[in-house]
Amino acid sequence: MDKIRVTIWNEFRHEKEDPQVAAIYPEGLHKAIADGIAADDLEIRLATLDEPENGLPDSVLNTTDVLVWWGHCAHREVSEVVARKAHRRILEGMGLIALHSSHFSRIFGMALGCSGTLHWREAGEKERLWNIAPTHPITQGIGEYFELEHEEMYGERFDIPDDGRTIFLSWFEGGDVFRSGVAFERGYGRIFYFQPGHEAYPNYYDRNVLRVIGNAVRWAKPVFFRELDAPCRPALEPIRSRGKNGDGGRESVLG
Ligand code: ZN
After folding, report:
1. How far is the CA of 207 from the centre of ligand 1 (A)?
2. In the CATH hierarchy, which fold is given to the domain comprising 4-113+180-220?
3. Cα–Cα distance between 213 and 180 in angstroms, integer?
4. What's the gap in Å between 115 CA and the centre of ligand 1?
5. How many other C-beta atoms can be found within 10 angstroms of the C-beta atom of residue 52?
6. Which residues crowd ion ligand 1, with CB under 5 Å?
7. Whole-number pLDDT of residue 91
């Protein structure tokens, strides 16, 4: 069986600039995620914003089955060209796992055509994530709910398209609720948004969070991959009702 080629992309700024974050994720949160989901069926690469072409040259993007994305304070530093290429590849079949504050990333906005606005509060409060899609591949191995002792609050209303399937619904200690796991399809690609992962808390070491990300990667792997084109299709059978001007038979229908 071919391995799923996973690229975990991280802005990788907080870990370099904030000693408290560096203490939690000394090699970056992308490395913690990579170590946490490592498995025989996954071939994992790491990419970061400050690398050439934002870490996503064609050689990487075109050999990525599932892109895992974590961005926060530098969304606008991702070049529009790179974001457009990644968007195109999603439409062709690549999966995208958008984590935490990636709701404001260029790629999330392009792919889903929404503002991604929400409410937030950084109070280190408790979060309870309810699994409301127990038959979905992303929730396998997850119980009825799981809890994170400390997380940044993200609250409704979350401006995302209504055609996503809500997988997790969160309650926060301060009273807010949030659609914390939502699955979409765009073109031939699958997209999963998953809210936990504020850089100040060690939640990318949490067993359930890692399980969800690992499940999501396998769910989002390309089922069908097709480069974007719209070729003219020759007729399979002779067309007898063709109009004089080749207008697809309109004349004969109208008599
Ligand atoms: Zn955050």
Report:
1. 19
2. Rossmann fold (3.40.50)
3. 13
4. 17
5. 7
6. 101, 152, 198
7. 97
Beta strand 145-155 pairing with 95-99 = unpaired
Q: What is the pLDDT of residue 189?
A: 97
Ligand 1 geometric centre to CA of 196 (Å):
8
Say which residue the tokens 């939640």 belong to. Answer: 203
- Residue 252's pLDDT is 42
3-state secondary structure the chain: CCCEEEEEEECCCHHHHCHHHHHHCCCCHHHHHHHHHCCCCEEEEEEECCCHHHHCCHHHHCCCCEEEEECCCCHHHCCHHHHHHHHHHHHHCCEEEEEHHHHHCHHHHHHHCCCCCCEEEEEEEEEEEEECCCCCHHHCCCCCEEEEEEEEEEECCCCCCCCCEEEEEEEECCCCEEEEEEEEEECCEEEEEECCCCCCCCHHHCHHHHHHHHHHHHHHCCCCCCCCCCCCCCCCCCCCCCCCCCCCCHHHHHC
219 CA → ligand 1 middle, Å = 25
Query: For residue 101, how far is its CA from the centre of ligand 1 (angstroms)?
Result: 6
Q: What is the pTM of this model?
A: 0.93
Strand order in the sheet with 119-131: 42-48, 4-10, 66-70, 95-99, 189-194, 177-186, 165-172, 119-131, 145-155
Report the sign of the C-alpha dihedral through residues 110, 111, 115, 118, in that order: negative
β-strand 4-10 against 189-194: which pairing, if any? unpaired
Structure confidence at residue 249 (pLDDT):
45
| C-beta of residue 47 within 8 angstroms of C-beta of residue 70 | no
